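EI: anyone free to look at a 210-residue chain?
SC: sure, send it
EI:
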Amino acid sequence: MTLYYTLCFGLLMSELLLFTTIICPMPFAMRKKMFHFLSENPVVAKVQYALKITFIFVAVLFIDALQRMVRIAQEGAGAKMKNEMPDVRTETNYAARKFYAQRNLYLTGATLFLSLILSRVFYIILDFIHVQENYSTLQQRTAKASGAAGESEELRKRIKELEAQVESGKAQGRDFDNLKKQAAQQNAEYNRLADEHAKATGSTSNKKHD
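SC: here you go
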């Protein structure tokens, strides 16, 4: 295997490892930290940019492997049409070339296909994390709003109780004012009667002395 196909195989193994890591079960908090790190870290962003360029070269290798495989298949079909009796060495060489062409085609094709799946799954899980965070935030706001509504209802009840107490206090105040007025009137009436009684008593005493 040549150097670039060896690198392509290493890239394929790395993709399989990363894909297994992101889909394996783990706590939500750990998954959120990992995905936020992969999506926001500047070093990871540079690595992703380099991988995009690498996948362009892998796509070129895929096209080259596909062309070789088609050419080898055409050679085999042409040899069968000529009805020639190939020797063992030629047949072995043809089988080896066909095997290498198929191997390179499957290797580069699997690398490209897995990169597309990996990218799609990564962004689906990232969107799911964002939706979960928004849902948690909405739940907290709803809980706070419910608590505020409960407190506001309690405050309304307390205000009504205080208003009732103020009204009762005003009623008691009005009753007290009425009692004061009645007491003042009774006191004035008592003083008037006392004065009349004193006058009447005084005049009677003067007549007896005469």
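EI: The chain has a mean pLDDT of 78.
SC: 👍
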